[in-house]
Amino acid sequence: MSKLGLIAGGGDLPREIIKACQGADRPIFVVRLRGMADPDLAGEDGYDSGVAELGRTFKALKGQGCKAVCFAGNVPRPDFATLRPDLRGMAALPGAIAAARHGDDALLRFLAGEFEKEGFVVEGADQVVAGLTLGEGPLGRVVPREGDVLDIDRAMTAARAIGGLDIGQAAVAARGVVLALEAQEGTDAMLARCAQLPAALRGAAGAPAGVLAKAPKPIQDRRIDLPTIGPATVVAAARAGLAGIVGEAGALLVVDRPAVIQTADELGLFVFGLPPKSDR
Q1: CA distance 241 to 228
Q2: Domain named LpxI N-terminal: which ranges (predicted)?
Q3: What's the rounded Cα separation, in Å, for the pair 202 and 22?
Q4: What beta strand segments (E) does the chain contain?
């Protein structure tokens, strides 16, 4: 099994990948993106890198014998004016800026291509961690009610629509009305906005209503930046008064699955995997 280079941003997904590699006795080297990776990764065998320091990163990965890389974690869109690229990063910068004009997904595809040019195989997080994606049906004990069906459809339709424009991956609908669309702020911030809406528009404790839907973008490279949920997502959805969370089976990453199930069951939310769009 080849040594994996983990390009780590923020959030819990990088830690999930590290645990999986350790459990499988797969060697791993962590490239901690400076200012983005969580501080608790500092103790892992690895290297701190700026997002535009491609040359140094490639050299470090090759020096460690890494044949494959995996991108994981939250990486906000960079401010290109403040980047400090090395020579290899400088060569890639015009292409990155051009790709970014077409959206975040185009930028990520461009960056993955730069690693492939250097001979690295790009692996998706779900390829590294077995069973990481949501399956079809309920994840815990709670299941959608008949009254949730319309909200599931509205929220998923909206999430796919903004994905087609490379805007975001998530949407919220309640009582048949789309309440929020995800953009650069991310899912947690979008749910916090929902929690501030008038009670007449959304659910509340004891009377939940509405659904968070997350869907991959239609042209997305599924090895990079698949939609993700974790325990914090479930808590944020409950604070917004929602009844549940849905995603496409096989296309939604579930980080810390036992905690997601426990949290959802305790809070009375459903987490439900829909058949892939082509199957419905």
Answers
A1: 20
A2: 3-131
A3: 43
A4: 3-8, 28-33, 46-49, 66-72, 121-122, 137-138, 170-174, 177-181, 211-214, 228-229, 244-248, 253-254, 270-274
Helices (H) and strands (E) in the chain, counts: 9, 13
Mean residue pLDDT across the chain: 91
Q: Minimal CA–CA distance to 105: which of 269, 222, 19?
A: 222
CA–CA gap between residue 51 and residue 70 (Å, rounded): 15
Give me the pLDDT at residue 279, please.
44
DSSP letter (8 states) at residue 146? G
Task: List, for residues 201-248, the tens digit of each pLDDT value.
Answer: 888 777 899 999 999 988 777 888 889 999 999 999 999 999 999 999
- Chain mean position to CA 239: 20
Report residue 61's pLDDT band, with 50, 70 and 90 as the boundaries: very high
pLDDT score recorded for residue 143: 97
Total-model pTM: 0.87
Counting Cβ atoms within 10 Å, is residue 184 exposed (0-12), middle (13-18) or buried (19+)? exposed
Q: What integer pLDDT is reported at residue 280 of this predicted model? A: 44
- Residue whose C-alpha is closest to residue 176's, from 227, 211, 216: 211
Q: Which two tokens stand for residue 32?
A: 């901690």
Sheet strands side by side (includes 28-33): 46-49, 28-33, 3-8, 66-72, 121-122
Interior/surface letters 126-158, b for 16+ CB within 10 angstroms, e for the rest: bebbeebbbeeebbbebebeeebeebbbbbbeb
Indicate the range of 17-31, 83-97, 99-113 predicted with least confidence.
99-113
Find the length of the chain.
280
Residue with token string 């060569």? 91
Q: E strand or H helix at 106, and its extent?
A: helix 104-117
